[in-house]
Recover the amino acids of this structure.
């Protein structure tokens, strides 16, 4: 972490470049306006800030509307009751979020003292020469790598701050002050009273940020994680047979860690130190050509501001949760943990909806958890023909990419230091074939354009609308992917054979 500027009194206020004089004029208009909170903290740390919070003496909604008009940007009321407005600004493929709120008290100092942590309780006035307003010593805490609550009641005043404390401590490399740690620990019992949407948003910032595994470990040690994801409780007591080298919980944590390393290797600009590792270097060699496409896939947002990347980590957290109820002792005659992926998928759906993720996000997480064994099953089959790729994505859709990445992290976590390199190379080949089909040969394998449609089949063969037509179309798609059908005539001949009509071409569709 870069230390803060040693001379904050001469700190230059660096608003984003789109803030021209007209916009700043609309922002101030004779009133006192302050850049506050995390943006100031990041400014002191030399970090790029794209989420900017402003406190103003007048209505936050009114100021936000004026700024949005000046910038020709989108505006909406983030919290009408608390008079908070949000402006979304996009410039050169970069998005800034500007939140405007009224002061929480008669002065900026009182406003800052009511905030969560000292490092977030600093401000810089926009309406006058820049100076650091720091009533709680946040700059000193940054120098000391310390996270300290702004008051003895900071966490109890808003228990979601306990989750935020973990995120800040882990992502910024801060040591949590002892009294603050105790506040955070006691906040676990109050998380149930928090609106699920607020809890989701704070938790998702962890899942979509750096050092996810470290944050999950800390959440568990402070008893916060069970209050948000109770499905993980007891996983540390479940011993797994070989080739697993860890209990279910330790395996899950290792998977999260390995998943982060894998994504670092497959980033558009991979980290050299990570790529130099022999095991991860093989990932770069076999899958490197998909970097840009994987990055775009993970940055896709199914709802609001939540990228798929964070959903992938939540899926990883829940992928083996079903093992708590599917041990061989509980399912007579079945192998260890038989059906855990199906049960885990059901639990993942329930948890995602309880945390108020959108229906589309919940379905994505559910498919990923349910399908996380599929690449390993293809590995055991020994080959991945085009028809297998088609069926894989037919069942999983875009989640098939998530499953492919998750399966690699899962495999690394299963074996730990005992990883068999030949099997690892073979699994990478399986995943490469799957990603090649999805990213490079989609219209040939994953979504082949049909030679005939349902109406043509019904008209040609006198069929009535119903399941039979759908089943016939699916059989035609599979035959097309398998190379058995390559024209409309062959498609009709294939359909005739499937229907058992005279004149069928016997060599097709058997």
């Amino acid at each position: 972490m870069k230390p803060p500027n040693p001379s904050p009194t001469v700190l230059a206020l660096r608003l984003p470049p789109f803030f021209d004089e007209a916009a700043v004029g609309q922002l101030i208009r004779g009133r006192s306006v302050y850049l506050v909170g995390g943006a100031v903290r990041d400014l002191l740390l030399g970090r790029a800030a794209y989420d900017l919070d402003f406190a103003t003496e007048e209505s936050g909604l009114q100021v936000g509307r004026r700024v949005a008009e000046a910038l020709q940007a989108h505006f909406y009321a983030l919290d009408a009751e608390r008079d908070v407005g949000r402006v979304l600004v996009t410039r050169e493929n970069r998005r800034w979020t500007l939140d405007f709120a009224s002061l929480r008290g008669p002065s900026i100092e009182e406003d800052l003292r009511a905030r969560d942590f000292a490092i977030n309780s600093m401000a810089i006035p926009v309406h006058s020469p820049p100076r650091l307003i720091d009533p709680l010593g946040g700059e000193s805490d940054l120098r000391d790598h310390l996270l300290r609550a702004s008051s003895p009641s900071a966490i109890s005043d808003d228990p979601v701050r306990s989750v935020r404390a973990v995120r800040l401590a882990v992502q910024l490399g801060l040591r949590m002050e002892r009294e603050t740690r105790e506040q955070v620990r006691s906040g676990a019992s109050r998380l149930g009273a928090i609106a699920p949407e607020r809890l989701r948003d704070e938790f998702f910032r962890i899942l979509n940020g750096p050092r996810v595994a470290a944050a999950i470990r800390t959440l568990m040690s402070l008893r916060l994680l069970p209050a948000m994801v109770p499905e993980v409780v007891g996983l540390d007591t479940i011993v797994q047979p070989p080739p697993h080298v860890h209990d279910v919980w330790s395996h899950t944590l290792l998977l999260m860690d390995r998943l982060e390393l894998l994504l670092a290797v497959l980033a558009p600009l991979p980290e050299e130190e990570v790529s130099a590792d022999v095991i991860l270097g093989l990932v770069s060699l076999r899958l490197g050509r998909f970097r840009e496409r994987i990055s775009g896939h993970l940055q896709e947002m199914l709802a609001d501001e939540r990228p798929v990347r964070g959903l992938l980590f939540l899926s990883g957290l829940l992928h083996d949760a079903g093992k708590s109820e599917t041990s061989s002792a509980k399912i007579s005659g079945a192998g260890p943990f038989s059906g855990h992926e199906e049960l885990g998928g059901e639990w993942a759906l329930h948890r995602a909806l309880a945390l108020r993720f959108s229906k589309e996000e919940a379905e994505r997480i559910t498919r990923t958890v349910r399908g996380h064994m599929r690449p390993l099953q293809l590995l055991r089959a020994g080959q991945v023909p085009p028809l297998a790729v088609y069926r894989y994505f037919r069942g999983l859709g875009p989640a098939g990419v998530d499953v492919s990445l998750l399966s690699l992290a899962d495999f690394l976590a299963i074996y730990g230091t005992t990883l068999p390199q030949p099997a690892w190379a073979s699994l990478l080949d399986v995943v490469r074939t799957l990603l090649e089909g999805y990213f490079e040969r989609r219209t040939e394998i994953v979504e082949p354009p049909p030679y005939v449609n349902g109406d043509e089949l019904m008209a040609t063969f006198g069929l009535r609308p119903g399941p039979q037509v759908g089943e016939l179309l699916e059989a035609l798609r599979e035959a097309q992917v398998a190379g058995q059908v390559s024209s409309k005539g062959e498609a009709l001949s294939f359909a005739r054979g499937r229907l058992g009509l005279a004149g069928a071409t016997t060599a097709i569709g058997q």
